[in-house]
Amino acid sequence: MLCNLRIFSKILDDGGGGSPLPAKTIINKGSHLLGMCFLFIFMGCGSDITISEKRESTVIIDSFIQASQIESLDVLVVVDTSGSMRDNFEDVGIGMDTLRIDIENLTYDYQFGFITADPSFLSYVGPYDSSASSIDIMLATSLLDATGGEQGFSSTYTFLNSEDGSIFNRPEADFLLFLVSDEEEQGNISAVMFKDWLGDIFSEVSHDIVAITSKEGGLCTNNYDIGYKYTELANLYNKDSIDICDESWSVWLSESSFITRQVDYLSLSEDDPIVDSIVVYENHVISHNWSYEIEDNIIQLGFLPEAGDLIEIGYRIYNN
User: Fold this and answer.
1) CB count, 10 Å around CB of 306?
2) How far is CA 126 from CA 132, 163, 252, 278, in A?
3) Where are the alpha helices (DSSP H) in the chain?
4) Could you tell me which of 19, 150, 169, 314 has the fewest CB atoms within 10 Å of its CB?
5) Best CA proximity match to 239, nearest among 220, 221, 224, 261
6) Tens-level pLDDT at each residue, the chain (320 residues)
7) Same domain, yes or no, for 123 and 41?
8) Range of the domain at 84
9) Is there a contact between 140 and 125 (Cβ–Cβ < 8 Å)?
């Protein structure tokens, strides 16, 4: 008689609640196999024994807290208005109007302002609030003066320290900055210095940046001037820049910032999870309302967490 000895361990817990195991816990069952095999032999199994040893694995816990609902938001769009950018003005208008629709799902207390990326010839149009039409938003970029400067960091600094900027920047409002250029940022302010300055002036509210620029290895055919500093700034905010030559960038701008994004999914931090081990908790209570999207390696929730909700996803990966 063939005696099949298979050893299984529950990956996280039995689904009855409680907290997941700590991350990076390794459970090795191999050390007990020999004694268990002898036990099965003495119990009457035949001499043919098949052993399936559990591979060592590690517990991973990924999590996020749903961002609080925004009450008010200022959106500043810094646009390179040099000649090479003229073909992108329509995309900027479409993108900002689409973003505005998404913002209105969160709050109607918002305003847009548009400035040039040239601090020496600073041009400003705005503010545009919820009473503005889509045509107003679409035309805003084309109303800016044509300039030759490409210094988005310096322009932001100059504007926010100007009279117009002090009126636009509401102390109680969260702040979202868009930097749009098909070339490198050419000012003297470094990405690290610029981020530190933004952190200082917006220390009492939430703030974020989105960089839309020419990327190394991207879709732009004229890769002679890559927006390295814009991409570096985005990396400092734990994200990547957006390829300005990607035709679809304007339709998903709300997904590019935590301020305007309501999250109902989480990208897993490790590839190739053991799917049967995945457990999802909402505020420490197990949830079965989710699916695993293998192609994108994400957990798609079947619900939208409320502001402040904690989502924890536990799973195992095999050790190399």
Assistant:
1) 12
2) 10, 13, 23, 48
3) 33-42, 89-103, 134-143, 152-160, 163-168, 191-201, 228-236
4) 19
5) 261
6) 333 333 333 334 443 333 333 333 333 333 343 343 333 344 444 445 555 566 899 999 999 888 777 889 999 999 988 866 666 777 788 888 888 888 887 889 999 999 999 999 999 999 999 999 999 999 998 899 988 888 999 999 999 999 999 999 999 999 999 999 888 888 899 999 999 999 999 999 989 999 998 887 767 666 557 889 999 999 998 888 888 887 666 555 766 777 776 788 898 999 999 999 999 999 999 999 999 999 989 999 999 898 789 999 999 999 97
7) no
8) 73-256
9) yes
**Do 130 and 59 fall within a single domain?**
no
Show the tokens assigned to 104. 């209105």
Same domain, 273 and 245: no
Three-state secondary structure call for residue 188: coil
Question: pTM value?
Answer: 0.64
Q: 52 and 113: one domain?
A: no
Q: Same structural domain for residues 148 and 17? A: no
